[in-house]
From TrEMBL:
Name of the molecule in the record: Acyltransferase
Topological category with respect to the lipid bilayer: Multi-pass membrane protein
Native source species: Leucobacter massiliensis
Signal peptide: none
Chief location category: membrane
Any single GO BP term: enterobacterial common antigen biosynthetic process
Coiled coil: none
Family: Belongs to the acyltransferase 3 family.
One Pfam family, short name: Acyl_transf_3
Keywords assigned: Acyltransferase, Cell membrane, Membrane, Transferase, Transmembrane, Transmembrane helix
Chain ranges passing through the membrane: 29-49, 69-87, 107-124, 144-164, 171-189, 209-228, 233-253, 265-288, 300-322, 334-356
One GO cellular component term: plasma membrane
Length: 367
């Protein structure tokens, strides 16, 4: 990629190669990341229900915490893939395209699926049957549809962020500025006494420029043009594992101290989630430079990657159906039940996503 930087062993700096593209111009390691990330998303949602219900002192709850912590890289990775694509100078992204194609697709998907899930929750088993509640749920969206609104915000900011990444030093400055203000300082606001003072200072400062997920958007672009040496990759992998461990320890400590579950360290902007996400992205990119998928594995990855948006939208529906029949993670130890439930959700979700994609005219908006 012209203008990008290559970090090799010994700290030398050379030009990075063009992203490896296969299968009709697709970046293969992006497909790998999409496939892995969508499985991780389903894994989080499969495990989180019991995690919210089990006593925080129970061994099962702690095991579910490990599963959740290990899989939370998925959402940042999706943002990073989008950033690598939409901020690339090799891709023409215009305001016209964003408002006529990208943003309408996201908003239509949000509206339709928000209505579908609202109808199920309000008029389905145990629902209130209240039209007022349906209206409220429609505008609030189902719990997983927040991602669409966050992505809409990033699309709106894309023309500005494309100007930022023209100068890589400025882009990296943006990312490093986000580290304390979006990732670290919010955690410190929970510290007794000093945290309250810090929270008031941050509230008065209103430094919202680097908050949210824009840093992941920029990181995706910056890291997609960097080839890291073996030492750097090992360091990132170690940092990723440390991030998962830190997320688990922090979650267990704050939850048990408060007597109930606490998702403070589960936030997608926390250091313990950012480190694994960056590690997964960079390791996949390094793999993509040396390897290529072929045969059945390649077709499976491309299939999952292509259906990932639809799977994301539809999978809670199948999880809800299973729950009506008592099929949850409680039937076996979590390290067995969660993977089995993920498979049971993924298979019909992928088939449904592909079927919806084939609906003439509307399919591309709904899956």
């Amino acid at each position: 990629m012209p203008g990008s930087i290559r970090w090799a062993n010994g700290g030398t700096v050379t030009e990075a190669p063009e992203q490896q593209r296969t299968r009709a111009g697709r970046v293969e390691y992006f497909d790998v990341l999409r496939a892995v990330a969508i499985v991780a998303v389903v894994g989080i949602h499969a495990a989180i229900t019991e995690w919210h219900q089990a006593p925080v002192t129970a061994q099962r709850w702690e095991e579910l915490t490990w599963i959740n912590a290990a899989l939370r890289f998925c959402v940042p990775v999706f943002f990073m893939i989008s950033g690598a694509l939409f901020l690339s100078p090799h891709r023409a992204v215009t305001v016209r395209e964003l408002f006529r194609k990208r943003i309408p697709r996201i908003l239509v998907a949000f509206a339709v699926w928000s209505l579908v899930y609202g109808l199920i929750e309000v008029y389905g088993p145990g629902g209130s049957g209240s039209f007022g509640e349906l209206v409220t749920r429609f505008f609030q969206g189902h719990f997983h549809l927040w991602f669409l609104l966050a992505l809409t915000g990033l699309y709106l900011a894309t023309p500005i962020l494309r100007l930022v990444v023209r100068e890589r030093r400025v882009a990296w400055y943006f990312v490093w500025l986000a580290l304390p203000f979006a990732s670290v300082l919010p955690l410190l606001t929970r510290v007794p006494v000093a945290g309250e003072v810090l929270a008031r200072m941050l509230d008065d400062m209103r430094f919202d420029l680097v908050l949210g997920y824009s840093a992941y958007f920029l990181l995706g672009y910056l890291l997609s043009g960097a080839v890291l040496g073996r030492g750097a990759l090992i360091a990132l992998a170690v940092a990723g594992v440390a991030g998962v461990v830190g997320t688990v320890l922090g979650t267990v400590l704050v939850s048990r101290a408060g007597g109930e579950w606490d998702e403070l360290f589960f936030g997608f902007l926390t250091p313990g989630v950012a480190a694994p996400a960056i590690a997964v992205f960079c390791l996949a990119q390094a793999w993509g430079e040396r390897h290529s998928l072929s045969g059945g594995r390649g077709r499976a990855v491309v299939f999952l990657a292509g259906a990932s948006f639809g799977i994301y939208l539809v999978h809670p529906l199948f999880q809800w159906v299973y729950r009506q029949f008592g099929f949850t993670t409680e039937f076996a130890p979590p390290f067995l039940s969660v993977p089995l439930l993920v498979i049971a959700i993924m298979v019909p979700s992928a088939l449904a996503a592909v079927a919806i994609q084939r609906i003439p005219g509307a399919g591309k908006y709904l899956s």
